[in-house]
Amino acid sequence: xxxYLVHWPINAFxxxxxxxxxxxxxxxxxxxxxxxxxxxxxxxxxxxxxxKRSFTAPVPIFAFSAGAxxxxxxxxxxxALGNGFPQRFPDYVQQRIPVGDWGNxxxxxxxxxxxxxxxxxxxxxTRGFPTTVLLWGDSFAAHYVSGLDANINQLxxxxxxxxxxxxxxxxxxxxxARPDCMRFNQQALKVIQDAGIKTVVLSGRxxxxxxxxxxxxxxxxxxxxxxxVRVFVIxxxxxxxxxxxxxxxxx
Length: 251
Fold this sequence. Notes:
By secondary structure, this protein is α/β, with parallel strands linked by helices. The protein folds into 2 domains: 2-88, no CATH class; 108-234, Rossmann fold, CATH 3.40.50. It has helices at residues 2-17, 24-51, 58-81, 120-123, 139-142, 145-150, 152-155, 181-195, 215-226, 244-250, and strands at 108-109, 132-137, 158-164, 199-203, 230-234. The chain has a 5-stranded parallel sheet with strand order 1-3-2-4-5. Helix 1 (2-17) runs antiparallel to helix 2. The two termini are 38 Å apart. The mean pLDDT is 86.
């Protein structure tokens, strides 16, 4: 039981402080540290408590427990509200990583909005060009919006954002987590036809969907080409095993 208790904080802090996947040597070190701390806890905390040398009456036991819980809760709340007290580092500088405006709730559906909220007027992100391009996909498509906007003079196109978190641009894709995904994707064809869009860019977190094979993606591409649409597929973009904000903080 002591081992079970102590291995959690060791595991949590090791993963928090590491900016990469833990290697075997780190895993061995964590295991050794867990057993050592468990032995210390068993001998100096668990055994004295079990032998009841002190706090034999129920009232002192519960009072001590309640006090300890209150102190831990207060410390946890203070740390959460204080964002971990980053001022403890003398060279700390507040940083904010700009991610751009994804049009959350309208152009980028996070799964909490009605898909009917989407409209081409609000989701045409750039204007004034003769060519219109539909950016269709999940959140991995949405995160390209700011980059496309920043390079619009080179692209020379009106970018229309059509994105839904966890919903790849595959017409046959179904997800219990995103029950509106298939309807959202089917609606994309109507958007393309109604707006006369002739170029579509597809993007998604492909590593999450490859287990189902990419036959559905190929069928989607074939359907779009059948409508006379040029199709571009953006491959898998880099993924970070650690929160990018944490990487920036430790940098």
